[in-house]
């Protein structure tokens, strides 16, 4: 009986040194980024650290982003949000070390998890932000006229999408 218990304890000890905490407890694949804007239907462009366009679409959107650039290297993204008549906003989404990778491997995972499995799967990384919520402000060069309000703007400051709705008023 003691021999069986001893073998089980040794097996458990060996098993805990071979696992990798971030891969088991975290997520090794892409992570979802939610992008929202006020007003919605703004154009979203996501570019990675190499200058490659990853995504182009409109808000609101939820999309998967890869966290791993390479072995022991996390990804970094630039998210540009723009809408005609509004100032463009740029947000950087970076990766940081996953808490399970740091703490979990110290307690349970061991060197194999820390040096091989989690870096290879990308589970050692997590996005520093899963949500981007921006409120777009009117452009310095233009203006957005709210419905049922009177405003005076230069013709060049009126967005092209609104010019066909303009009515000429004679004196």
UniProtKB/TrEMBL annotation:
Signal in keyword set: yes
Pfam families, A to Z? PEGA (PF08308)
- Alphabetized UniProt keyword annotations: Signal
Q: Does the keyword Signal apply?
A: yes
| Domain PEGA as annotated: residue spans | 32-94
Secretion signal, residue range per the UniProt entry: 1-22
Q: Which protein, by its recorded name, is this? A: PEGA domain-containing protein
Species source reads: Dissulfurispira thermophila
């Amino acid at each position: 009986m003691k021999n069986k218990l001893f073998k089980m304890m040794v097996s458990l000890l060996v098993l805990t040194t071979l696992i990798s905490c971030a891969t088991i407890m975290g997520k090794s694949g892409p992570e979802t980024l939610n992008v929202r804007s006020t007003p919605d239907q703004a154009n979203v462009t996501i570019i990675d650290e190499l200058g490659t366009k990853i995504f182009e679409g409109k808000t609101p959107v939820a999309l998967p982003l890869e966290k791993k650039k390479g072995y022991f290297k996390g990804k970094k993204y630039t998210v540009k949000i723009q809408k005609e008549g509004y100032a463009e906003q740029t947000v950087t989404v970076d990766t940081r070390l996953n808490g399970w990778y740091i703490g979990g491997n110290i307690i349970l995972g061991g060197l194999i998890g820390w040096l091989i499995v989690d870096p290879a799967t990308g589970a050692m990384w997590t996005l520093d932000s899963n949500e981007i919520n921006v409120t777009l402000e009117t452009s310095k060069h233009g203006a957005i006229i709210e419905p049922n309000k009177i405003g005076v703007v230069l013709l060049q400051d009126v967005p092209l999408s609104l010019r066909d709705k303009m009515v000429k008023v004679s004196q």
